[in-house]
Write a structure and sequence with these properties.
The chain has 320 residues and is mainly α. The chain has a single domain, classed as Farnesyl Diphosphate Synthase (Orthogonal Bundle). Helices cover 75% and strands 1% of the residues. The protein has 14 helices and two strands. The longest helix has 28 residues.
Length: 320
């Protein structure tokens, strides 16, 4: 699909102005870093979901733009902190904040972005929007910590994996859709319906990200990176429960002790492909995508709804 979608091109321009204004600082170092962040921003999928959900439920207004800015501020803050935690020096083909300004500055920048987001809502009495998105931040932290806890013994049930990604990734997309819907409708039924829609899209989005680890596309992270970081993604979890005891033993040994050796990572990738882990994950991703599309069918057939459908398909068909 064409990004940004024409149906919200004007709204995205307005959002950009609100977002740039919301990150300004009188501290010159911070202002320099904020300009760097604004210049290298990614696809802005989450603000798009806020604006489209808002438009599906009513007329986009100032509350919608603040909600989209809050989403982007929170998302950017978590990425800055993630790069510090993961000791990553690259993000979307650019140097990360910690690579250019070191960890201490990066952590403080993340804190600054979080506080700017909170104040953007509080200063305008957007309490319900703040409540929706604060819940997402709490869930994201819980999901990350649950993943760290479970990664230690490399023994993860599929149900726990879905619990992790529901919290870690899907919660922010779910809250983006809910915040957008609430900003224009003030209707809790519509808000919850679009929150569920966003959660299913978010789960499909994360499974797609997991699958990139086994492909050949240049997606901004090295192939096999999740294996190197001992992240138990769906293809690996499926393989561990569908291979022979000897294969399972070898797989766990590589993940624990040889996960930095390129040729051993290649063995894991090959094992996952042969076990059917890729095909199974693809199937689960499409199930969640289809549930999201089915829920959208409850809304009138408009250009906005059709654009949302295209955006859902983009999240699972994308090459990066």
């Amino acid at each position: 699909m064409k990004l940004p979608p024409p149906v919200i091109s004007k709204e995205l321009e307005n959002f950009d102005k609100v977002f740039k204004e919301s990150v300004k600082s009188h501290v010159s170092l911070l202002d320099t870093i904020m300009r760097y962040i604004v210049r290298r921003k990614g696809k802005q999928l989450r603000p798009m979901f806020v604006l489209l959900s808002a438009k599906l439920a009513g007329e986009v207004n100032e509350v919608t733009y603040r909600a989209a800015s809050l989403v982007e501020l929170l998302h950017t803050a978590t990425l800055v902190h993630d790069d510090v935690v993961d000791e990553s020096f690259e993000r979307r083909g650019f140097f990360s904040i910690n690579a250019l300004w070191k960890n201490k500055v990066a952590v403080l920048v993340g804190d600054y972005l979080l506080s700017k987001g909170l104040l953007l809502s509080l200063d305008n009495d957007d309490f319900e929007i703040l409540k929706i998105l604060s819940t997402a931040v709490k869930q994201m932290s819980e999901g990350e910590l649950l993943q760290i806890e479970k990664a230690r013994n490399l023994n993860l049930e599929e149900s726990v994996y879905f619990e992790i990604i529901k919290s870690k990734t899907a919660s922010l997309l779910a809250s983006s859709c809910a915040a957008g819907a609430y900003s224009t409708s003030h209707d809790q039924v519509i808000t919850q319906k679009l929150r569920q829609f966003g959660e299913w899209v978010g789960i499909a989005f994360q499974i797609k990200d997991d699958l990139f680890d086994y492909g050949n596309e240049d997606v901004g992270k090295p192939t096999g990176n999740d294996i190197k970081e001992k992240k138990l993604t769906l293809p690996i979890i499926y393989t561990l429960s569908h291979c022979t005891p000897a294969q399972k033993k070898e797989l766990i040994y590589i993940l624990k002790n040889e996960n930095r050796r390129k040729e051993r990572v290649a063995v894991v990738i090959d094992m996952v492909k042969k076990s059917g882990g890729i095909a199974y994950s693809q199937q689960k991703m499409e199930e969640y995508r289809d549930k999201a599309l089915e829920l959208l069918n409850e809304f009138p057939d408009t250009e906005v709804r059709r654009t949302l459908e295209e955006l859902v398909r983009f999240t699972t068909d994308r090459k990066y």
